[in-house]
Amino acid sequence: VQLVESGGGLVQAGGSLRLSCQASRPIFSFSVANWYRQAPGDERDLVASMSSTGRIIYADSVKGRFTISGDDDKNMVFLQMNSLRPEDTAVYYCNADTDIRHYWGQGTQVTVSS
Question: Do the bridges between strand 9-12 and strand 108-113 make them parallel or antiparallel, or are there none, so unpaired?
């Protein structure tokens, strides 16, 4: 299974980016699909999660600004990020889990300038 992220880049504070994660198999085959992020010197933290049952959760720091969604036809998961802040700067990783395996993408850099 491969997960490939895209859509990162440099944006000014207040701007928007949409991250994409292309999976090599149907999204509904995973029990959950997540976006994590990791800033230099920090741990990798959960940003948003979407389960196969439709449950969605967000980190408190991104609630109301970020939206996770999926497209089963295209085997893709998205993270729409609005009202970006400098503290959102990090490498963003796509993650998908089955009951027994965890899969990760290579990450995409998001940099928000003040």
Answer: parallel
The per-residue pLDDT for 28 is 85
**Cα distance between residue 37 and residue 47, in whole Å:** 7
Cβ(67)–Cβ(80) below 8 Å: yes
**The two three-digit tokens of residue 65, written as one number:** 């600004």
Mean pLDDT calculated for residue range 91-102 = 94
Do the beta carbons of residue 103 and residue 3 sit within 8 Å? yes
For the cut 90, the answer to whether the pLDDT of residue 30 exceeds it is yes
Contacts of 87 (CB under 8 A, 6+ apart): 61, 112
Contact between 109 and 91 (Cβ < 8 Å): yes
Tokens of 55: 């449950």
